[in-house]
Amino acid sequence: MKKILFALTLLIITQSASAQLFSKEKIKNNENFDKARLSWGFFLGLNNYDFQFTYKQDLEDILVETTSGFNVGLISDLRLNEYLNLRFEPGLFITQRNIQYSESYFNGIEHNDSDLLREVKSTYVHFPLLLKVSTKRFNNFKPFIVGGFSTALNLSSNQENPDDNSVGQFRTKKNMVFYELGFGIDFYLYWFKFTPSIRGVFALNDEIVKDVDPNSPWTSNVNTMKTRGFFINFTFQ
Q: What is the pTM of this model?
């Protein structure tokens, strides 16, 4: 599913950019849009989050089944010069990941099928501060790359829950730090600016909360568990 969404977004961006680039149309929509010092907008989109594990011992990998989630948020844009913009994009990102353990983690331990699966639901409130680097505008479109750092609050975190995996509770931390990299194209339409973009996010800190039992089959072999993923956002300004 995520490969299909990624391919469709790339196709839309490529075809639209080609149409703009090779069109003989020279009339510029919203010609003075980028001259404003401050601009505002909102975005809607899809996300796909994953976990990256590192291990203490060489056992079978923990598998992560990803699902497509939903993004929504606001944009404030500060123009620094013709090519640089500083952006603050607070947003709500809802997702779910299913973690599948191998039975090798439970050697000598009585268990059932439900012990091999953990559902991790996350509701992140992202606070990214990003630098947008754009090319020169061509007719009614302008490509760009974007990067920066963000903090996130996981509203679905159960970090303070005293129960752990021994009673079915997989715990994750509440506060996260990410770096983000992406690219997109601004399209200047008659009434507003429309921007499809793709962005990768990568956690800098460990997200797992270890079980009380130091020999827990769910967490004892995990050295770190870090979130990674990508967004497809559609922005309106």
A: 0.83
User: What does the angle CA 121 – CA 157 – CA 230 come to, to the nearest 5 degrees?
Assistant: 50
154-169: b (≥16 Cβ within 10 Å) or e: beebbeeeeebbeeee
Given a contact cutoff of 8 angstroms between Cβ atoms, the answer to whether 202 and 178 are in contact is: yes
Using an 8 Å Cβ cutoff, are 145 and 185 in contact? Answer: no
Dist CA 63 CA 215 (whole Å): 20
How far, in Å, CA of 68 to CA of 1, rounded?
8
Q: What CA–CA distance (Å, rounded) separates 112 from 44?
A: 40
The domains of the chain are located at 2-25+40-236
CA-nearest of 94, 93, 92, 99 to 120 is: 99
Beta pairing partners, 123: 94
Q: Residue 56 in contact with residue 214, Cβ under 8 Å?
A: no
pLDDT digits (tens, 9 = 90+) for 210-219: 999 999 999 9
In angstroms, rounded to a whole number, what is the distance separating the alpha carbons of residues 183 and 147? 9
pLDDT at residue 85 greater than cutoff 70: yes
Q: Is the pLDDT of residue 55 over 50?
A: yes
Structure tokens at 80: 């620094």
Is residue 97 within 8 Å of 226, Cβ to Cβ? no
Question: Residue 69, Cα to own-chain centre: how many angstroms?
Answer: 10
Q: What is the pLDDT of residues 38-48, one digit of tens each?
A: 999 999 999 99
Fold of 2-25+40-236: Porin (2.40.160)
